[in-house]
Amino acid sequence: MTPDLLLALALFAFVGSISPGPSNFMLLASGANFGFRRTIPQVLGITAGLSSVLVAVGLGLGALLTAWPALGLALKVAGGSYLLYLAWKIAMARSMAKESKAGERPLSFLQSASFQWINPKAWVAATSIMAIYTNASDPFWSVAMITATVALVNIPSVAVWAAFGMALKGFLADPIRLKYFNIAMGLLLAATLWPLLK
């Protein structure tokens, strides 16, 4: 991969990673409700999950989903349902981490990694990146390089959302503000389903 192509890929990954989407809205809410440190496993899980989707698409899973539309539809339905469940949980959260109920906690590494497999934005990004940047003459090496580059760009880009959420913590110490913030985050997360409905 040439330096120019690598730079273009890094820029593409940055824009895709830092732009609003389901995972970033969840990170914003988690940073505000649980703090940055407790949200780190979620940040790392998002990157690991996206990396696994990239590898799968790069090795041919995207073609399988195109060949079997029912499988793609099942993935969309499962992803949409889980996303709505998470949106509901965020919208109904009413207290910060120190005051939260025993069962309330940020998504774990495994939960956020698994979510990328049903995250529409992750699939669109993975399919686009692999279609544009994979080198047909050396597919395995190019898939590895693409995945490593995207992961290196993704971690700090998505971490910004968790940090921004944490920066809002003081403002959200007021229970009324926190309530409306969480409702807004839940609605924004649910709204990310719009592209699936087209």
UniProtKB/TrEMBL annotation:
The organism's taxonomic lineage, starting at the top: Bacteria, Pseudomonadati, Pseudomonadota, Alphaproteobacteria, Rhodospirillales
Pfam families (alphabetical): LysE
Keywords, alphabetical: Cell membrane, Membrane, Transmembrane, Transmembrane helix
Classification via InterPro entries: LeuE-type (IPR001123)
Keyword ATP-binding: no
Membrane-traversing stretches: 44-66, 73-91, 140-168, 180-197
Listed name of the protein: LysE family translocator
Membrane topology type: Multi-pass membrane protein
Major localisation: membrane
